[in-house]
Amino acid sequence: MLITGQLSEFSLPELFQFLEQGQKTGLLTLNSLQKETKQHYIWFRQGRIVAASDRHDETGLLALIQKRGWINSFPSISSEQLKTTPLGLYFKANNFLQADQLKLLFYTQVMQQVCALFKLPDAEFTFDSNAVIPSLELTGLSSLGAEVTLAGLRALQDWSALQNKLPEIHSALTSRSEGKPTLHLNQAEWNVWEYTDGHVSLKAIAEQLQISIEKIQQIAFRLIVVDLVEELPMMVMSSNSNSSFNSLDLDPIEETQTTNRTNSGLSTAFLENLMSFLQGKT
Amino acid sequence: MEIMRLVITGPVGAGKSTFIRSVSEIEVVDTDRQATDETKLLKPKTTVAFDFGRLQFSPNMALHLYGTPGQSRFDFMWDILICKAHAYMVLIPANRPSEFRYARRIINFMEQRAKIPMIIGLTHTDCPGAWFPENMAIALGYPNEKNRPPIITVNATKTGSVAQAVIVLVKQLMLECLV
User: Fold this and answer.
1) Residue numbers of B between 27 and 66 with CB closer than 8 Å to A
2) What is the pLDDT of residue B77?
3) Could you tell me the pTM of the whole model?
4) Which stretches of B65-114 are DSSP H helices?
5) What are B45's strand-pairing partners?
6) Pairing label, strands A26-32, A123-128
7) What is the enclosing helix (H) or strand (E) of A113?
8) Mutate to test the interface with A, among B29, B99, B173 (most CBs of A within 10 A)
9) Predicted-complex ipTM score
10) Which of A34, A214, B67, B129 could bridge to B16 as Cys pair (CB 3.0-4.6 Å)?
11) For residue A223, what are the CA distances in angstroms to A51, A108, A232, B35, B40?
12) For chain A, what is the total number of helices (H) and then of strands (E)?
């Protein structure tokens, strides 16, 4: 199955949110639409990011190891050995690499490479759930898409590509989870998190925290795309709309004598008659 | 006269006005006006108040359909309409993932204001680039099949498909306990 699109329509943070929530496995390919076309590859397993590269020849991780000079000569490894063991774990098990080195490799391979992709103004994306995950690119470590998203968006300077995705200033935030989040939030994000009761608009949060509304919108967007909160539009009632609301009577309801009613107030006879009528139209 | 009020909501271009037109027995009151903002890139006209359609299926029974405007600047209309509704349907175009986040916003708004039956209708599922329903459910914030409202495919231009969608909503209403 392929999912295709453009980041200008479905942004990278939303894409990561979707892949994580859907526990997707496969390859996300980004084809940047800048002057020099460049492709980026991110592999997912059960919604977690397991590898990333800017090449598709299964030599990305080896190139990173080589660059650091951690292994003088690479041992020959049979494909049988790699069928069940990621390359990183194979090296660790055979004492070619230490655990700390693996973590550093993963940080360079995934966090640094992928976080940089949040700066892309636009790109075509393809997610292929049938793609095989190459063991040669795997350190054996993985990261939640949410963690990478938070890091990438925190570092983002130019938010113009995400402007139309930001929550509105008159919206409030409601928490999606019970209890405190387990993700590592920074202080600003924690401060906004304290206002997720659904009653305080982003504009009011900005005033109370004395932070610009643009920054609050960006922080709120981060919390939304890592599934911690939802945006809840709040109406800004003007005096005009208030009087319109009070005077608007959509249609008067005549009370019927029917005794059998659903919780909606509609009679079961009504619903049954409507059902029969509609079935005649299908 | 017993009347059921059904609100049809969703992002701009989802097919709300078309949906109501397909099933209404009266000429739908047209409140479309020329679009002036980014909506005009999508279509020349857009709903600025609300669409109204009616289906009278019995001497004393009628279904009233209210289509909300898609643009958020008219959200005061959403509030007016949803507070008096018996049920609502959120139409979402499957071929425009740029609208999924906005659709979530509408759903959050409506859910907070009215605890009434709701279904999600996916439109334009036959258009290029349309997402599969399962993936749309995840993108709309419903990864767990057990915690989803009914999500169906709708062709807003076909009376049969529209009627089938309303049937699903009526079934939701019937599932409520009798008082």
Assistant:
1) 55, 57-58, 60-61, 63-64, 66
2) 78
3) 0.88
4) 75-82, 100-113
5) B34
6) antiparallel
7) helix A113-117
8) B173
9) 0.86
10) B67
11) 24, 24, 13, 33, 31
12) 12, 8
Q: Answer whether A278 sits within 8 Å of B104, measured CB to CB.
A: no
The CA–CA distances, whole Å, from A281 to A65, A158, B66, B76, B160 equal 66, 53, 20, 34, 6
- Does B2-175 carry CATH code 3.20.20.80? no
C-alpha span between A8 and A249 (Å, rounded): 42
| In a domain? residue A253 | no
B116 interface with A at CB cutoff 8 Å? yes
Paired residues of B65 in beta bridges: B6, B53
Domain boundary among A106, A122, A155: A155
Rounded Cα–Cα distance for residues A238 and B70 (Å): 20
A271, B174: Cβ pair inside 8 Å?
yes
Residue A269 within any structural domain of the chain: no
pLDDT digits (tens, 9 = 90+) for A32-67: 877 666 899 999 999 999 999 998 888 889 888 888
What residue numbers bound the domain in which A170 lies? 166-233
HSE at residue B105, side-chain half, CA atoms within 13 A, is 24
Question: Residue A14: helix, strand or coil by DSSP?
Answer: helix
**Domain membership flag for residue A266:** no
Nearest CA in chain A to B79: A235
Number of domains in chain A: 2
Which residue has 């049954």 as its token pair?
Answer: A272
Whether the CB-CB separation of B4 and A266 falls below 8 Å is answered with yes
A173: left (phi over 0), alpha (psi -120 to 50) or beta: beta
User: pLDDT digit of tens for each residue in chain B (179 aa)?
Assistant: 899 999 999 998 899 999 999 988 877 666 666 666 666 666 666 656 688 999 998 999 999 999 987 666 566 778 888 888 999 999 999 999 999 999 999 999 999 889 999 999 999 999 999 999 999 999 999 999 999 999 999 999 999 999 999 999 999 998 875 44
B110 touches chain A (CB under 8 A): no
Q: Do residues A10 and A149 share a domain?
A: yes
More confident: A193 or A72: A193
Domain boundaries along the sequence of chain B:
2-175
Task: Looking at the structure, tell me whether residues A34 and A143 fall in a common domain.
Answer: yes
Contacts of A282 (CB under 8 A, 6+ apart): B160, B163, B164, B167
